[in-house]
Amino acid sequence: MSATVVPLPQSSSSETVGFLRRMASMVSGRNGEMLLRGAALIESLTQRAMSAERLFHETQEESTRHVELRKAAELASDAMAGQIAALRTQLAGVTAAAAAERATFDAEREKLLGLMQHAESHIGKLTTELETLRASVDSFNETVVSVPIEMLRMARTQFDVLSAGFARKGDVISEAMSEIGGFAIDKALTAKTTDRA
Hints:
Strand content: under 5%
Number of strands: 0
Number of helices: 4
Structural class: mainly alpha
Distance between the termini: 119 Å
Helix content: over 70%
Largest sheet: none
């Protein structure tokens, strides 16, 4: 509850003090002292009242400044609260997006790990098959000799000549062996011609 301050008229108190002092000069004894004390008391109270009035105005201005500062602080606080809420919402969105990206990354990673394991398993099987084929080719190469086809044809012709020569001499066993050799070359040449087709 605010009190209404009515300022004292400066002239009335000084007139009263002046009157009391004039009266004290006219009256002697105790009454004169009382009048002077009353004048001093009025001056003192007037000074105190003016100081109180000045203090009241300063306090009132200070209070007004505090109210304005409080309103400004409340507005700033409300603005900060709004910004904090917006930042929390934004952070929640970023966190959710990061979690979704992480889940996608983990899923892709698992998929790639699965593909890598499958590829490693497949490579292991192919390596085993390759080693088996190499061993087979190595064992095959130990029993086979590579000869140009033209050489085989020349050998076939020689077997025919040998067979004919053995037949003229009557050597049936050598003739049969020469024909078997010629037949084996014919078989190899026929197989090679079939492979090319």
